[in-house]
């Protein structure tokens, strides 16, 4: 007989509190890791745990020894692309490129052209090794923070590898599957309260994860977040640094410092040093940074405390630095450029990410340092601060029909510039934006050329402040 409960039932917070205390916390962790996760993996036709074991074996080998395997994997990827992907077959064959040279020295990659978002959009299906109708696949849209968005298609093994990478990295920092984690997610205005329990609830149980759905980051919203953290007591939380920085500032203002979790895992946007320091100090936690892209998944992670930079996950990708205007970004920085090693449906070879940083090869591996780019801002909506990624989630998933957007805070009210997608409708977009944020924006429908570019490199930003 169905329970007919809603996710906002007053009994559920009590159940969360009880489940976060011993001994139920330990029992829940054991069931999640050793029973629910394998069942969910089977139901979803996933193969994550074998790939996790593969990663564990790979990184037990010293970097100097596994480097030859990396060269072989890069060579195999390029050879496969030349044989199966029309774009690479035409482009690389015209160069007379021999992939076997990469088995001796990865610097031979420099003979191949760069891949950009413009090329991906232009080539479309010619970047696929198989028609999408013939293979189980997952589409992932890039965020657009470093250029106009495009869609990347993953095959199922690549998606499973991506999930295994997250599990592996978290294990390396002490967060095993038995320990609870919490994910910050956007609360969409006007969403109905979902039933409980749901498919998502079982998924979260299998992953020993819970979600915080947040909207405005005002004092009331931040207090609600903090109360939820105290009730659930996760070992690790995962979210945007701008969100957790706002929470840290609130806790510092109201309590000085306090602790509700052990590790904050940052992702999705650049984490500034001042944010990292404030989060660690006010929230009394370890801060770990990771670097990922919609195009490749997580490719670098702070695996060891105290080690500067994020270690490139050489099992998943190889990284180079493409040249940039060093007068503006520093002589030792370049554009991070990746060759993905897992996704055979849509291989990305020498893909320019749009982010800047340094690539350093050390005895223990390759590290990304001084990464800059993809900065998110806080935007006041009717006097209440909102994170840019929250606004982007609403525009992408609830308004729809939007290819790109930009908020210009230099006027009152702020200007919301929107580039309509080919399937979008300006009147419908206007109606939905006004429904979510009445009177908050002066809405303008523009073309990409009309978006404001900022900085010496004319870099696109979702938020323009000056």
List keywords for this structure.
single chain, 466 residues, alpha/beta, Rossmann fold, GMP Synthetase, Chain A, domain 3, 2 domains, 11-stranded mixed β-sheet, 4-stranded mixed β-sheet, 14 helices, 37% helix, globular
Topology:
Blueprint: E1 5-6, H1 11-19, H2 24-43, H3 49-60, H4 63-84, H5 86-95, H6 117-123, E2 137-141, E3 151-155, H7 156-172, E4 181-186, E5 195-196, H8 199-206, E6 209-214, H9 219-232, E7 236-239, H10 241-255, E8 263-266, H11 273-283, E9 286-293, E10 297-301, E11 310-312, E12 317-322, H12 326-329, E13 334-340, E14 351-362, E15 365-372, E16 378-381, E17 384-387, H13 388-399, E18 402-408, E19 415-420, H14 426-436, E20 442-445, E21 453-454, E22 459-460, E23 463-464
Parallel strand pairs: 4-6, 4-7, 7-8, 8-9, 18-23, 19-20
Antiparallel strand pairs: 1-5, 2-3, 9-10, 10-11, 11-15, 12-13, 13-14, 14-15, 16-17, 18-19, 21-22
Helix pairs in contact: 1-9, 2-8, 3-7, 4-5, 10-11
Describe the structure.
By secondary structure, the chain is of the alpha/beta class. The chain has two domains: 46-179 and 235-373, ANL, N-terminal domain (Rossmann fold); 378-464, GMP Synthetase, Chain A, domain 3. The protein is built from 14 helices and 23 strands. The chain has helices spanning 11-19, 24-43, 49-60, 63-84, 86-95, 117-123, 156-172, 199-206, 219-232, 241-255, 273-283, 326-329, 388-399, 426-436; strands spanning 5-6, 137-141, 151-155, 181-186, 195-196, 209-214, 236-239, 263-266, 286-293, 297-301, 310-312, 317-322, 334-340, 351-362, 365-372, 378-381, 384-387, 402-408, 415-420, 442-445, 453-454, 459-460, 463-464. The strands form six sheets. Strands 6-4-7-8-9-10-11-15-14-13-12 form an eleven-stranded mixed beta sheet, with helices on both faces. A four-stranded mixed beta sheet has the order 20-19-18-23, with helices on one face. Helix 14 (426-436) links the parallel strand 19 and strand 20. Helix 1 (11-19) crosses helix 9 and helix 4 crosses helix 5 (86-95). The longest helix is centred in the N-terminal third of the chain and has 22 residues, at 63-84. The relative contact order is 0.11.
């Amino acid at each position: 007989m169905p329970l007919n409960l809603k996710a906002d039932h007053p009994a559920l917070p009590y159940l969360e509190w009880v489940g976060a205390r011993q001994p139920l916390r330990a029992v829940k962790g054991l069931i999640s890791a050793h029973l629910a996760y394998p069942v969910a993996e089977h139901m979803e036709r996933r193969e994550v745990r074998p790939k996790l074991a593969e990663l564990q074996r790979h990184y037990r080998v010293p970097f100097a020894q596994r480097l030859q395997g990396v060269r072989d994997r890069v060579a195999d990827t390029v050879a496969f692309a030349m044989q199966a992907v029309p774009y690479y077959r035409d482009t690389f064959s015209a160069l007379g490129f021999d992939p076997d040279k990469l088995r001796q020295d990865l610097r031979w990659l420099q003979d191949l052209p760069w891949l950009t978002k413009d090329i991906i959009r232009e080539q479309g299906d010619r970047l696929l090794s198989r028609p999408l109708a013939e293979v189980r696949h997952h589409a992932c849209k890039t965020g657009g923070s470093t250029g106009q968005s495009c869609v990347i298609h993953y095959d199922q093994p690549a998606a499973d590898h991506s999930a295994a990478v997250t599990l592996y990295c978290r294990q390396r920092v002490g967060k095993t599957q038995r320990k609870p984690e919490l994910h910050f997610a956007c609360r969409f205005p006007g969403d109905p309260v979902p039933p409980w329990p749901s498919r998502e609830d079982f998924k979260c149980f299998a992953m020993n994860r819970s979600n915080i759905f947040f909207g405005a980051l005002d004092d009331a919203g931040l207090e609600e977040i903090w109360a939820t953290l105290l009730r659930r007591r996760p070992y690790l939380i995962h979210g945007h640094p701008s969100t957790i920085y706002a929470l840290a500032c609130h806790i510092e203002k109201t309590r000085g410092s306090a602790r509700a979790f052990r590790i904050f895992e940052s992702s999705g946007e650049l984490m500034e040093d001042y944010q990292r320091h404030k989060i660690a100090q006010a929230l009394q936690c370890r801060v770990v940074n990771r670097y990922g892209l919609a195009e490749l998944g997580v490719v670098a992670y702070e695996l060891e405390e105290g080690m500067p930079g994020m270690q490139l996950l050489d099992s998943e990708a190889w990284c180079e630095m493409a040249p940039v205007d060093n007068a503006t970004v520093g002589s030792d920085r370049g554009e991070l450029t990746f060759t993905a090693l897992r996704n055979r449906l849509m291989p990305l070879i020498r893909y320019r990410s749009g982010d800047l940083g340094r690539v350093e090869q050390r005895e223990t591996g390759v590290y990304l340092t001084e990464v800059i780019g993809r900065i998110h801002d806080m935007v006041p909506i009717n006097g209440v601060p909102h994170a840019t990624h929250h606004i982007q989630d609403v525009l992408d998933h609830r308004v729809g029909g939007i290819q790109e957007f930009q908020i210009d805070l230099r006027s009152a009210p702020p200007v919301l510039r929107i580039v309509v997608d080919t399937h979008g409708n300006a009147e419908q977009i206007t109606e939905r934006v006004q429904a979510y944020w009445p009177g908050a924006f002066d809405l303008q429908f523009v073309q990409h050329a009309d978006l404001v570019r900022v900085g010496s490199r004319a870099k696109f930003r979702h938020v323009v402040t000056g």
